[in-house]
Write a structure and sequence with these properties.
Strand content: 5-15%
Number of helices: 34
Shape: globular
Distance between the termini: 33 Å
Number of strands: 13
Low-confidence stretches: 245-249, 285-289, 821-829
Largest sheet: 6 strands, mixed
Radius of gyration: 35 Å
Strand order of the largest sheet: 4-5-6-9-13-10
Length: 829
């Protein structure tokens, strides 16, 4: 126990300031000497609340700060091992970001704000306690009176500075603030479950404590658990202290006091940079190539005692005909009722295996024969040389596929078209590659082959002949701006691999032909790229959950399908091709996922996406001008923890409301009084809000009636955003009214949602409210008309026309966040 100087007025020669020794107590008073050394009351002042003798500030304040620092930087505050193991197993790609964000939140979650506020209030209370004359004398540096009070001020300043230095060091040294990010939706669910489990453990420990005595070490574990839940809550953007649970409510100063006792019993240890680095090393060590293997591959590798510690690629262990045959018989053949074709093996995710056996000089048919089965077909092109294959292609194959693939005059087919099941020339393409190698053609074999046949390579070979700097220039000037607008990417954010190769597969192939990867390109440009490995090491069950929780909700925002429908195969393939490939590795199809989850399959249509893009371009073109009183933001992510994006967003200003009211007065409504009143009612509601949310959809009408299900899903997604009004615009408007009155509430799953902060209006009314005239209004009508007629060709024409305008100021999520300026991770600082 620390021994303090006894605060007694008898022994004082000058005024001093004393505080209650109880941590967190706000009792502070100026202690004056007794008159004539013996006259006066309260000779040994005590705290009225705790009945404890007061102690001098300069003697106690150092211990208070030390206790806080012991608590804030105890090694137990690092991410719990059990939680790390779960994240490492389920979401290995998010592990490093989680560790970094957790460490950043440690001080906030364990009470940094409380001790900081306490020190600030103590310094203010200290100055209020002393007299003006004493303060004036202290400010006079030459004065030698009131030294005891001056020493107290210096000690508080020094300890406050000590605290802030430690907090600053923590934020700068232990965590990388540039890589801090909010957890994904799936990780949020996991952390929420972990919190609930931790709360139940806290309550059970409290019950045990009431029944029997527990050791000091067990008490510390209890405190550690409470503080770690605070850090976790902070990571989720919540208040570190769960005020609703009275049993688990524990003040920060109770914690500091307890940890000071733990320290005296040598139960605490401060974490260091080395401890943090060890966490990262462990997580990086586990992120090995093993993540690329399926469960059946790992079982085969373990059964045959194959060493995979030094592998560079997934199939590098296939280094002999014997092991290849064994894998073929024990794993691949079990997936088929009959002997498989080459492309059958590719479709279940084993294309790399076929490439590995080709390096050994064998093919699928060779393995089939060695397994004692009859090959599905004999290679009919075997033995043909390069010229024979070229003549066969010009005189027979090209004439056949030209009609099937609807090729232009002189246009060459792509290899993937020929290799498809419908065309059926995979064997021919493989033999062209083999024959090309014998001729010394090692790169771009198919491109050289079709040129020999007098044909022009298709778009996939557009980038041939360009060097790496030229390809970088093409990406920066042409490819990334288009992908950024289409997928709402940030300025320095790389697209998903699936997003790029869906439109620019030739660009990716050109980079790979030069010996580079997409990651090399993004590294040079300083782009963020974390898209590879997203599906690695996922079981089929985890893939189903990923589709249900991540893919389907994000595509629902784009394509506006109902709650019981699934996105079309093409929609998933465009945005999440890696997911389709991951299913194939498990021998599953996308239709299996839909069937298992009980969704209704739907046909693919690009109409809605195209109309959305054109509407956003038009409104950006019209609204984002200097003279317009408000900025229009397109495809905005309102919530950092969700993928939901609102089509359009505007901050509601007085100038905007004045403009809308003026436009209504100018327009002569030949409408019923009821409709006019409904429109004015909507304007009044908008006037009372701060944010205007705009959503377009072809789905707000179903068989001539309002689609309440879709309206409800939009309200559920977006109206949690504070002080907002949601305007729903039906791009397939088919009634004469300008506004469709919504019911007072709409049903969403098992709950009813109020519609008072939303309105369903026609595109025409939207144009009137915002004063669209002339060319702008004609463009709006043209878009809506072609959308109704499903005229994709004309919509593409309008899209290209708008894309060709250089004056469009297109603002998206990045620009919105700069204005919004809010981050949930630093919410409690």
């Amino acid at each position: 126990m620390t021994i303090y100087t006894k605060v007694s007025r008898k022994n004082l020669n000058e005024d001093r300031v004393a505080i209650c020794p109880q941590m967190g107590c706000k009792t502070i008073e100026r202690v004056k000497p007794l008159k004539l050394g013996f006259l006066g009351f309260g000779k040994c002042p005590k705290c009225k609340q705790h009945n404890l003798p007061l102690v001098y500030v300069e003697e106690r304040i150092g211990e208070v700060v030390s206790a806080a620092l012991i608590c804030l930087f105890d090694k137990s505050g690092l991410p719990p091992k059990n939680l790390l193991k779960i994240i490492e197993k389920r979401y290995p790609n998010e592990l490093n970001t989680f560790i970094n964000s957790w460490i950043y939140c440690i001080t906030i979650g364990r009470g940094a704000k409380v001790i900081s506020n306490y020190m600030d209030s103590l310094s203010k209370a200290y100055l209020k306690t002393i007299t003006k004359k004493q303060l004036r004398d202290i400010r006079n540096q030459k004065s030698t009176v009131h030294q005891a009070i001056n020493n107290g001020i210096k000690e508080i300043t020094m300890q406050f500075e000590r605290l802030l230095k430690h907090l600053r060091k923590h934020s700068e040294v232990f965590s990388n603030t540039k890589k801090i990010g909010s957890p994904s939706i799936r990780l949020r669910h996991l952390l929420t479950s972990w919190l609930e489990k931790s709360y139940s453990e806290e309550k059970s420990l409290l019950k045990n404590e009431e029944k029997k005595e527990i050791s000091l070490l067990e008490i510390k574990e209890y405190y550690d658990n409470i503080l770690n839940t605070g850090t976790c809550r902070c990571l989720l953007g919540l208040d570190p202290i769960q005020k609703s649970d009275k049993e688990c409510l524990l003040s920060a100063f109770d914690r500091f006091s307890a940890y000071f006792e733990f320290c005296e019993e040598n139960l605490t240890q401060k974490f260091t940079k080395a401890d943090v680095d060890t966490l990262y090393r462990k997580s990086n060590t586990n992120m090995t190539i093993i993540n690329n293997f399926t469960e059946e591959e790992l079982k085969f590798i373990e059964k045959n005692h194959i060493n995979i510690s030094n592998l560079n690629t997934r199939w590098a262990w296939v280094n002999s005909k014997e092991i290849a045959l064994k894998f073929y018989k024990e794993v691949i053949l079990l997936k088929f009722e009959d002997s498989p074709k080459s492309h059958d093996i590719d479709e279940i995710g084993f294309r790399g295996f076929r490439a590995a056996i080709s390096k050994l000089g064998i093919g699928v048919n060779d393995l089939t024969k060695a397994a004692g089965l009859e090959p599905h077909f004999e290679e009919k092109y075997t033995g043909m040389n390069y010229n024979d294959l070229l003549n066969l292609f010009k005189n027979k194959i090209y004439l056949e596929v030209k009609i099937k693939l609807n090729l232009k005059k002189g246009e060459a087919p792509r290899t993937r078209d020929l290799e498809s099941k419908e065309i059926g020339y995979r064997g021919f393409v493989d033999n062209v590659r083999k024959a090309s190698k014998k001729e010394g053609i090692l790169r771009n074999a198919w491109g050289e082959f079709v040129k020999e046949a007098g044909l022009i390579p298709k778009k996939e070979l557009y980038y041939q002949g360009m060097d790496f700097p030229e390809l970088i220039d093409i990406y920066v000037k042409e490819i990334h701006p288009r992908l950024k607008m289409k997928y709402n990417l940030k300025d320095k954010q790389a697209p998903l691999k699936e997003q790029l190769i869906s439109e620019y597969s030739g660009f990716r192939n050109a980079i790979r032909r030069l010996g580079y990867n997409l990651s090399d390109l993004y590294l040079i440009l300083g782009f963020e790229h974390k898209f590879w490995k997203i599906y690695n090491n996922k079981s089929y069950r985890e893939l189903i959950k990923f589709f249900k929780d991540i893919i389907r909700p994000s595509l629902q925002d784009i394509y506006d399908f109902s709650e019981n429908e699934a996105p079309a195969y093409e929609e998933v393939e465009i945005n999440y091709r890696g997911f389709i490939e991951a299913l194939k590795r498990h021998g599953k199809k996308f239709s299996d996922v839909i069937k298992e989850l009980g969704y209704i399959p739907r046909n693919f249509s690009n109409l809605g996406v195209l109309t959305h893009s054109i509407m956003n371009l038009l409104l950006s073109y019209y609204i984002n001008k200097e003279e317009f009183p408000s900025t229009y933001y397109s495809e905005v992510e309102l919530f950092s923890s969700s993928n939901h994006r609102i089509d359009g967003f505007q901050f509601i200003t007085k100038s905007l409301i004045s403009l809308i009211n003026l436009n209504i007065q100018k327009y002569q409504f030949s409408r019923s009084k009821e409709e006019i009143e409904n429109i004015k009612s909507v304007i009044r509601k908008i006037e009372g809000k701060q944010h205007l949310l705009i959503d377009f959809s072809n789905g707000f009408f179903k068989r001539g009636k309002t689609n309440s299900e879709l309206v409800a899903s939009k309200i559920k997604k977006y109206l949690d955003y504070p002080s907002s009004f949601l305007v729903l615009i039906g791009t397939n408007w088919n009634i004469s009214k300008l506004i469709k009155r919504l019911p007072n509430s709409v049903k969403y799953k098992n709950q009813f949602l109020n519609t008072s902060d939303s309105a369903l209006i026609s595109p025409k009314l939207f144009g009137i409210l915002f004063g669209m005239k002339g060319t702008y209004y004609e463009l709006l009508n043209d878009i809506i008309l072609n959308n109704k007629q499903e005229n994709i060709k004309n919509l593409n024409r309008i899209y290209k026309k708008l894309m060709g305008i250089n004056k469009i100021n297109y603002y998206s999520t990045d620009d919105f966040n700069k204005v919004k300026g809010k981050n949930t991770l630093i919410k409690w600082l």
